[in-house]
Amino acid sequence: MVAILAGGTGGAKLARGMLDVVGPEELCVVANTADDIEVYGVHVSPDPDLVALWLADLIDERGYGVRGDTWEVMTALADAGHETWFRLGDRDLALCLVRTELLRAGRRLTEAHAAVLEALGTRARVLPMSDEPVRTHVRAGGRTWPFQEFMIVAGAGAGPPVEEVELRGIARAAPSTEVLEAIARAEAIVIGPSNPVISIGPILNVPGMRHAIANAAAPTVAVSPFVGGRAVKGPTEAFCAQAGIAATAQGVAEAYAGVIDGVVADEPVSGVAALEIDTLMDTPEARGRVAGATLEFARSLSGG
Amino acid sequence: MVAILAGGTGGAKLARGMLDVVGPEELCVVANTADDIEVYGVHVSPDPDLVALWLADLIDERGYGVRGDTWEVMTALADAGHETWFRLGDRDLALCLVRTELLRAGRRLTEAHAAVLEALGTRARVLPMSDEPVRTHVRAGGRTWPFQEFMIVAGAGAGPPVEEVELRGIARAAPSTEVLEAIARAEAIVIGPSNPVISIGPILNVPGMRHAIANAAAPTVAVSPFVGGRAVKGPTEAFCAQAGIAATAQGVAEAYAGVIDGVVADEPVSGVAALEIDTLMDTPEARGRVAGATLEFARSLSGG
């Protein structure tokens, strides 16, 4: 079984490729929940949902949300004079309602998200990194923003430089039993090509997570989020700059020192086992190829 | 100012008529919340919303929900294999989200419903009877149903006879400050032509409500829910039968003994001041006429 740590689009694309390589029963994604938000009274889990939609082949062309979704509820909220900066399509909202209903009934986030996966017909598992709430806050331009507001309202990397990233609630969080079991059982642990600070950072900083990965029998490899020297999507550079991480595969490999046994990138990396391949995942074939090569590379490290 | 106690359609129609008679600033509806339901993770208030939609001239022809609403979210839930017996249109759901978001943030139901009214552009007030949760449960055919399930899934009056009506939570409920103030300030208190057992019953049984009405300076008059000897809509007869209330204006007047100073009906009533008029409210003109006559009748009793 392959465990993939994933945030947004990069991790989700790798997971979709891995689904072709190992099949749904052998894939388990541990997804960042520090981007979660309560909005319009419902619980939205952007990263776990993004991964689930990619796995279900239902991701929309715009890069998030359900393909071909409609916007009736958002239109109604806007007509009612309500803020709608966080855009949820009607089908996207329905998935959030499935999750929210279970959370209100006292179920864990892991169980609630499992119902979303079932609703989407996805048989691969996507596990929230923790059942406890962790919420990324970003300090920029002298103001502290909840993560989604920073990304959408403040314009993320286009705004003032990031001064600080705070993971509220992280000290009280723990990996769920399901996450610990997946990591312990995995044949390979793959850190997806997601933002090392705001996507992978929260996962690795859940107390007990690094220990679980270090103690796992499986090798751990990271796929660099930089392709052709740049992040494919999102404000990765801005967050790396603040965290003192060089925006290169080498920088990411060093940031994961002590966690990874190897790195996959399209540029040379030294000081750790490295696989240099084309890592652009812009087609189903490319996603399958990168996932397959990554798994093969991880397997080559298991004897080490 | 006129205070109207209302449940569903009958009370809402009278309130709409009264809006024409006294204007939005002078109208306050106290609405039953014992039909409220948490479904899909959101808080739905069918009676307060029905009144609000009537006042905003947005009620749909089907008798509930927002006129011309769409059903994208319900379709998505059904596609996801989720139960959708409680049908909420997209615009209807948006109103529920406005309310739910405020409730999750710790606001009172009265405040949350005020936001719904504002969203609808309704200037008249519609107050939940209480901020505390009261939930009607119906025992029928040897089974106890939450109210909405009894009405929608069990088929209400068409199913087995009602054995018992239980108002869960009523002992811990209290009228809100806003409700007490409206009753104290009212020039007339009108009990709308709603089901005396499941619509008006919960309102009158909130501890302190009868006392507040009895102590109010204003006369209290009830409009009979029976028109031409029958309830216009809903399973009024079935619930009256169980409660030992004759399904006539006389029966209703007797059920409200000690609360009302007069009754408005389209049939003779004895033992209490009575106004006999045509009470069918099937047109805007009829609604205004019934409301106006009821208010005039109440005023005629104020000297008493």
Can you offer a commentary on this structure?
Two copies of one chain form a homodimer. Chain A is an alpha/beta fold and 304 residues long. Helices cover 40% and strands 19% of the residues of chain A. The first copy, chain A, has a single domain, classed as Rossmann fold (3-Layer(aba) Sandwich), CATH 3.40.50.10680. In chain A, helix 1 (9-22) runs parallel beside helix 2, helix 1 packs across helix 12 (284-301) and helix 4 (90-104) runs antiparallel to helix 5 (109-120). Chain A is globular, with a radius of gyration of 18 Å. Chain A starts with a strand and ends with a helix. In chain A, 53% of the residues are buried. The mean pLDDT of chain A is 95. Chains A and B meet through helix 3, helix 4 and helix 5 of A and helix 3, helix 4 and helix 5 of B.
Largest sheet of chain A: 7 strands, parallel
Q: Give the H and E element order of chain A.
A: EHEEEHHHHEEEHEHEHHEEEHHEEH
**How many E-type strands of chain A?**
14
The CATH superfamily name of chain A is CofD-like domains
Number of helices of chain A: 12
Structural class of chain A: alpha/beta
Largest interface: A-B, 31 and 31 residues
The CATH topology name of chain A reads Rossmann fold
Low-confidence stretches of chain A: none
Q: Give the termini distance of chain A in whole angstroms.
A: 19 Å
Highest-level CATH class of chain A? Alpha Beta
- Spatial strand arrangement across the major sheet of chain A: 5-2-1-9-10-13-14
Content of β-strand of chain A: 15-25%
Mean pLDDT of chain A: 95
Backbone CA Rg of chain A: 18 Å
CATH architecture of chain A: 3-Layer(aba) Sandwich
Helix content of chain A: 25-40%
Oligomeric category: homodimer
The total tally of domains of chain A equals 1
The shape of chain A, in one word, is globular
